[in-house]
Amino acid sequence: MQLESKVPAGSIEEKWDNHRFDVRLVNPANKRKYEIIVVGTGLAGASAAATLAQLGYNVNVFTYHDSARRAHSIAAQGGINAAKNYQNDGDSIYRLFYDTVKGGDYRSREANVYRLAQVSVEIIDQATAQGVPFAREYGGLLDNRSFGGAQVSRTFYARGQTGQQLLLGAYQALEQQVHRGPVQLHTRAEMLDLVVHDGRAVGIIARDLVTGEITRHSAHAVVLATGGYSNVFFLSTNAKASNASAIWRAHRRGALFANPCFTQIHPTCIPPSDEFQSKLTLMSESLRNDGRIWVPQEAGERRPANDIPAAERDYFLERRYPAFGNLVPRDVASRTAKKVVDQNRGVGPLENGVYLDFHDAIARLGRDTIEARYGNLFEIYERITDEDPYRVPMRIYPAPHYTMGGLWVDYNLESTIPGLYVIGEANFSDHGANRLGASALMQGLADGYFVLPYTIGDYLADYLSTDPVGTDEPAFADTEAEVRTQIDRLLSVKGTRTVDWFHRELGKLVWDFCGMERSAEGLEQAMSEIPSLKEEFWKDVRILGSNESLNQSLEKAGRVADYFDLAELMCRDALHRDESCGAHFRVEYQSGEGEAMRRDDDYSYVAAWEYTGDAADPRLHREELDFEYVQLAQRSYK
Amino acid sequence: MTTTAKPAAGQKPKRRLPFPIEFYRSDIGKKWVMAVTGIVLLGYVLVHMIGNLHLYEGPAQINEYGEALRDLGGHLAPRTFVLWVLRLGLIAAFGLHIHAAYAVSRKSLASSGPSYRARDYVIANYASRTMRWTGIIITLFLVWHLADLTWGVEPAASGEFFRGDVYGNVVASFERWPVAILYIVANLALGLHIYHGAWSLFQTLGVNNPRFNSWRRNFAAGFAAVIVIGNVSFPVMVLTGVVS
Amino acid sequence: MRITLEVWRQDNSAAPGAFKTYDVPDITPDMSFLEMLDIVNDRLVESGEEPIAFEHDCREGICGSCGLMINGQAHGPQLGTATCQLHMRKFRDGDHIVVEPWRARAFPVLRDLVVDRSPLDRIIEAGGYITVPTGSAPDANLIPVPRDVAETAMDAAACIGCGACIAACPNSAAQLFTAAKLAHLNLLPQGQPERWDRTVAMVEEMEQWFGACTNHGECEAACPKSISIDFIAMMNADYVKALRYNRRKAGQHA
Ligand SMILES: Cc1cc2nc3c(=O)[nH]c(=O)nc-3n(C[C@H](O)[C@H](O)[C@H](O)COP(=O)(O)OP(=O)(O)OC[C@H]3O[C@@H](n4cnc5c(N)ncnc54)[C@H](O)[C@@H]3O)c2cc1C
Ligand code: HEM
Ligand code: HEM
Ligand code: SF4
Ligand code: F3S
Ligand code: FES
Q1: Following DSSP, what letter does each residue of A424-449 receive, concatenated?
Q2: What CA–CA distance (Å, rounded) separates B46 from B222?
Q3: Has residue A453 got a pLDDT over 60?
Q4: How far apart are CA B29 and CA B205, in angstroms?
Q5: pLDDT at A278
Q6: Which of A136, A319, A583, C126 has the most beta carbons within 10 angstroms of its beta carbon?
Q7: Considering only alpha carbons, which residue of chain B is nearest residue A66?
Q8: How far is CA B152 from the centre of its chain?
Q9: Beta partners for A605?
Q10: Global pTM?
Q11: A292 catalytic per annotation
Q12: A544 part of contact set with chain C, CB < 8 Å
């Protein structure tokens, strides 16, 4: 199989415009003859479905949530980037493009990233018009802040609830289309498999989470907007239900999975307080703008934070990276934090954190300013830890947060299965080996509002006045049968251990060996342990109840079952990539002072894995990346 | 998922009716009517209470006051004409207020599910939760009250009821201690009703402003207090023989 | 800590439900309430009893999935807190805790503590949006919005759609949820063109499903985002204006 990125010709500034001119259009009268399935109602899914419906297509939307508004996007706190340059501080589309490629450590596709920077501007206009209450200056104009790794203020935000407000905007647009008619919204409906009929994606198999009813749905094209897979680590900042099953099922049906090992660890999360912890809570990275990160100089220091004199504190980020200080990119901040904790200078009851201290900021700006900026974050923190961050420094530690990897897509966001489009965090697209803060919301909305609705027309044009493949076709029957066997298998194990137990065990493995730091032998060990854990799962998992009812253990079990295979692929990918880049840090490849060492000559490509059956090993395909506009350089934040 | 929830009210016809009817069909509209009629009723009970203070000036004055009421409008209007206009207004207010109250209460009962095993109210106070009951008590009281002091029908009215002798009627009536108790209880109920009502009506009418919200509470409490103290004083004074 | 749980169990919306009591030893004050339920569920599964179904997702008070009536208070005893943000340290050792699903005619129980809240989406569908076809928006800074207005709109927009206001309301009224969305959109200049139609449409849809507000104020106390009932007053004022004035002149009556 040859990977065709389908990047249009022309200079980078012109590519998108040329492409929009070149793609075939479907005339308005014909659009209503098309059926499109969108799975997912996060920023990407909701914005895409709403826009497609506005254009006139018939859209069937699926989400396992009880309402489209609950998608995990709702949790995004910090903000969304856009090259508006409202602050007149030298930002531009080109700079956002440049920063994103650089921040991604040169493992992303230039043309996609440039397009992302281009449409970022329209996203803010769109959201504001929808009534998203972005923060404003006294003059009534939009406010911005600078965000992890960026040296310009280009981040728009709505208190600490940017994702919520953006999602509500998209959700409201979606509900309007439900009201108008073109959108059919299926809530509490989980996609369990993709239906492929002579090489094309033609529909999905879904399960009604209340009645357990399994149904077939066909369409001219299928769009997956199902989010990321950080929950493979069990403990992550993602919503509990976020999962990889939709994209994993598509992968098994022929969609290549790109850069699975590029998983981002977020530096500012609240460290676990006990082993029952079910989820890690993110403290928006914007906190790093005013908070100072430190640990005691002495290992095993036991005094409470405020009793440790300044002289005995180690502001390790400011020390190591004078230029960027506490604002170094996520991967750098995370790894450095891990280092100091490994030197057992970690703080907190489990000695598993570092301090994020606002004492100086409060002294400098006053409590009110800090409260205005971070009030609700401080509140979240106090709720969870019972400590008051205005007085006691916060404790933070890195946690799995975002997955740059995902299904491989070309410039049109189409996967290697014709008719299957993948948008948002679910695809591998624009962030390379590391995502900059406030860029995921931007990408999800860019894909959904401004890219997919155009590019999908080019594919649909071929199927004008053909009906969707009938759900009585063998393709549907067979896929449904497979889904049912999987469910029956799970229910028939009747073992002794809960689903969560296996999920935790798997999570520990992946976190230890394929987390912040990876090593060849660690990865090999993981790859030998994961299959045996999987085997045990299928022998010993205990799922009570039946399929014909609301059965949350059964839902979880299906998702965890897929994580085993995904975890293995992550390790395989991490092992094959003999370099350190972005979030992927291989201990074997670091400079003297422990900086990541990229190997551009051998590894500046996208690793796209093809599923070749449960027995066989996946096959690697490479999409070579060439950089015409951004010249490769070792990142340096010194 | 095919939703299992069903609307409480049936689908409304699309055709729009004239504003007042259209408005009164909605719960918010009914609440507006309750608020407005509520204000009328508040006004009435206040004026009525003050007027009744003439009792303390003695028979002549209060009976004169009763006369004055009937003579309202002087020689311009037929005798008791103006009074009847006011009465009709009052009857209308009561009627609307009660109908709206009945309708919203029915709607809410129809909309609420099984009650909770444990229930721990945070803000909702005793007054707000008993509006329906205090309302009913007031209605029943009113029937008795009219029979007692306006129409003079026994057993509500005392044996020696004499139309026009307001003073005598009141004293005679309250000297029967069960009746006095009934008046006291009814007016306490009214007090509760007003305590929530006179606060609530601002919210209903949308005149709600952080600047005077705290003041609203005091207003309602004060209003209720004045009415209760004033009205309860009469039976008490008669029972204790201060007025006889 | 050791507590006693009294939980509503119900197989499906058709089946009758009943309370079941569980003795829950060995839990820590640092656990969240939902983590406590996770543990109860693990123990139930081990003992062969089906786990308690309850909704949750973000576990940080933003998605609005979670929602339990805990000892007669929606989202439990801590003000301005969603169930998932509630920690066991708010309870005392030996406490008896009653856990019930949201109750309202429009919220049928699907299983155990899971209810169907889709009528809230119906209310949004009726008009809880600003019509802007993708791509048709003017520059974001074309219309300045006074900071205080934007802030108040944000206060209202903070609603997470959990339904606690309805669960807590003695009338099962959805006033706070609806008023919050109306205020969010009706306050902003962008929301003015559809303001009056939106108000009528959403109020009428709301009244199809839910009870009538008599200003108990219980909703505000239950709201995990402490959204103020002042917004309800605003809705009441807007609704009468919306019906009263000639729509062709509606713009004049903002
Ligand atoms: C705590 C936190 C904070 C963040 N903060 C920021 C930030 O400040 N700035 C930023 O840019 N990014 C941030 N991110 C990242 C960003 O929020 C996500 O990457 C982005 O929201 C993903 O959106 P999405 O639409 O791709 O997927 P999601 O929002 O995850 O939506 C997935 C949707 O797919 C549905 N779904 C999934 N699988 C199935 C299935 N099998 N069947 C049916 N439906 C399915 C789900 O129901 C859901 O509706 C943050 C992430 C986290 C975890
Ligand atoms: C002199 C007698 C009365 C006075 C002064 C009075 C006053 C009020 C006021 C001011 C309100 C608040 C209206 C609002 O918030 O919109 C109210 C509400 C109410 N009244 Fe009355 N009322 C009286 C009699 C009655 C009667 C006879 C009934 C019915 C049997 C009744 C039942 C109610 C009910 C159920 C409410 C709803 C609670 C609320 O909306 O806050 N009232 N009343
Ligand atoms: C202890 C308190 C009260 C006393 C002593 C009292 C006394 C009287 C008297 C003497 C009359 C007859 C007047 C006349 O016929 O000239 C009267 C009439 C009336 N009272 Fe009261 N009253 C009291 C409380 C109330 C209350 C609480 C209400 C309302 C809820 C009320 C409503 C009325 C009405 C509607 C009439 C008829 C007025 C009319 O004839 O037009 N009264 N009252
Ligand atoms: S108003 Fe408050 S309680 Fe009601 S749904 Fe919104 S957040 Fe929940
Ligand atoms: S509690 Fe209910 S009565 Fe109104 S003020 Fe809140 S909706
Ligand atoms: S689980 Fe999301 S708000 Fe509680």
Answers
A1: GGGB-GGGTTSPPTT-HHHHHHIIII
A2: 12
A3: yes
A4: 10
A5: 87
A6: A583
A7: B1
A8: 21
A9: A624
A10: 0.96
A11: no
A12: yes
Instruction: Let me know: does C66 contact C162? Beta carbons within 8 Å.
Output: yes
pLDDT of residue C253: 52
What pLDDT is attached to residue C245? 77
Check whether B150 has a pLDDT greater than 80: yes
Give the pair of three-digit tokens for residue B206: 């949308």
Could you tell me which of A323, A349, A322, A321 has the C-alpha nearest to residue A335?
A: A321
Q: What percent of chain C has pLDDT over 90?
A: 95
**What sign has the CA pseudo-torsion A423, A428, A432, A434?**
positive
Convert the pLDDT of each residue in C24-65 to its tens digit.
999 999 999 999 999 999 999 999 999 999 999 999 999 999
pLDDT > 70? residue B132: yes
Sort strands A420-422 and A313-314 into parallel, antiparallel or unpaired.
Answer: unpaired
Mean pLDDT of chain A: 95
Percent of residues, chain A, with pLDDT higher than 70: 99
Residue whose pair of structure tokens reads 């989202």 in the numeric block: C75
Give the whole-number percent of chain C exceeding pLDDT 70: 96
State the DSSP code for A618: P
- The complex's ipTM works out to 0.95
Query: How far apart are alpha carbons C117 and C111 in whole angstroms?
Result: 13
- Interval A251-274: pLDDT, tens: 999 999 999 999 999 999 999 888
Whether C58 and A242 have beta carbons less than 8 Å apart is answered as no
Ligand nearest the Cα atom of residue A239: 1
Find where tokens 């840090």 sit: A585
Residue A72 and residue C57: Cβ atoms within 8 Å? yes
Pair A546, A504: CB distance under 8 Å:
no
**Once rounded to an integer, what is the mean pLDDT over residues A234-257?**
97
B211: closest CA of chain A, how far (Å): 23
Q: Compute, in angstroms, the gap from residue C176 CA to the centroid of ligand 5.
A: 7
CA–CA distance, A191 with A215 (Å, rounded to integer): 10
3-state SS class at A196 = strand
**DSSP assigned state of B10:** P
Spatial strand order in the sheet of A214-218: A189-197, A200-208, A214-218
Residues touching ligand 2 (Cβ under 6 Å) are: B 31, 34-35, 38, 41-42, 45, 97-98, 101, 105, 131-132, 135-136, 138-139, 193-194, 196-198, 200-201, 204; C 214-215
* Predicted confidence (pLDDT) at residue B197 exceeds the cutoff of 80: yes
Mean pLDDT of chain C: 95
Find, among A265, A330, A340, A359, the residue nearest to A295 by Cα.
A340
What are the residue ranges of helices labelled H in A322-431? Answer: 330-340, 359-365, 367-385
Residue with tokens 């023989």: B241
Q: What whole-number distance in Å separates Cα of residue A506 and Cα of residue A519?
A: 18
* B2 chain-A contacts, CB cut-off 8 A: 208
Give which of C240, C127, C244, C140 is closest to C194, Cα–Cα. Answer: C127
Whole-angstrom distance, CA of residue C89 vs CA of residue B134: 41
* pLDDT-based confidence at residue A637 (cuts at 50, 70, 90): low
Is the pLDDT at A7 greater than 90? The verdict is yes
Amino acid at B131: M
What does the pLDDT read at residue A362?
96
Give the Cα separation of A10 and A24 in Å (integer): 18
Catalytic residue among A145, A313, A330, A435: A330
CA distances from B80 to A607, B83, B145, B146, B170 (A): 97, 5, 20, 17, 21
Going residue by residue through chain C, which has 254 residues, state the pLDDT in tens, using 9 for 90 and above: 999 999 999 999 999 999 999 999 999 999 999 999 999 999 999 999 999 999 999 999 999 999 999 999 999 999 999 999 999 999 999 999 999 999 999 999 999 999 999 999 999 999 999 999 999 999 999 999 999 999 999 999 999 999 999 999 999 999 999 999 999 999 999 999 999 999 999 999 999 999 999 999 999 999 999 999 999 999 999 999 999 876 666 555 54
Q: Where are the alpha helices (DSSP H) in A200-309?
A: 245-252
